[in-house]
């Protein structure tokens, strides 16, 4: 039996947006998924700012949150669990890039915003930004190319129609709601 750790219900993109400062809300408006994280003391490096590796971790959290907020509401529990745990057809990162725009520091709140882009037969791109609440600006941006992978066969595969439909619906709904907010 597959062990799936319990998860708390995650807030919707609308609920997260409602709690953002106006300038931050404006900067993340073009993105379907949003989440906020505090900068912890342990995120700092010897230069006195958040370590660059932590930016990758923030984006990693944002990428998975994106799946939770966009895909999960539109898939059966079993299909989503299979997708997110690598037990069937699921995502695998092909490439990942970050552009560092500005340093950030302890005690800031960062909002990670993610949107899907460049949807193809067997892959898509997740574009992301990291916005500092203290600075009210984008401190990093980047993207990850996600290939759909059949973990049982050990090979890439096309995006199944059910996943494609859920992704398109979830993105469209979140972006529509962001424009109306």
TrEMBL record:
Classification via CDD domains: 4HBT (cd00586)
Signal peptide region: none
Pfam families linked to this entry: 4HBT_2
Domain of life: Eukaryota
UniProt-listed Gene3D superfamilies: Hotdog Thioesterase
PANTHER family, alphabetized: 4-HYDROXYBENZOYL-COA THIOESTERASE FAMILY MEMBER, THIOESTERASE_THIOL ESTER DEHYDRASE-ISOMERASE
Protein name: Thioesterase
Species: Polyrhizophydium stewartii
């Amino acid at each position: 039996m597959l062990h799936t750790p319990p998860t708390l219900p995650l807030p919707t993109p609308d609920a997260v947006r409602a709690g953002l400062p106006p300038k931050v809300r404006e900067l993340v408006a073009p993105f379907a998924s949003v989440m906020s994280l505090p900068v912890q003391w342990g995120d700092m490096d010897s230069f006195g700012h958040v370590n660059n590796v932590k930016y990758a971790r923030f984006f990693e959290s944002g990428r998975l949150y994106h799946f939770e907020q966009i895909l999960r509401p539109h898939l059966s529990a079993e299909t989503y669990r299979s997708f997110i745990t690598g037990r069937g057809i699921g995502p695998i990162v092909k490439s990942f890039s970050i552009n560092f725009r500005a340093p950030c520091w302890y005690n800031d709140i960062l909002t990670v915003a993610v949107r899907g882009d460049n949807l193809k037969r067997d892959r898509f791109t997740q574009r992301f930004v990291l916005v500092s609440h203290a600075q009210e600006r984008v401190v990093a941006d980047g993207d990850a190319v996600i290939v759909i992978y059949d973990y049982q066969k050990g090979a890439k595969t096309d995006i199944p129609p059910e996943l494609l439909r859920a992704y398109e619906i979830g993105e469209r709904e979140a972006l529509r709601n962001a424009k109306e907010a």
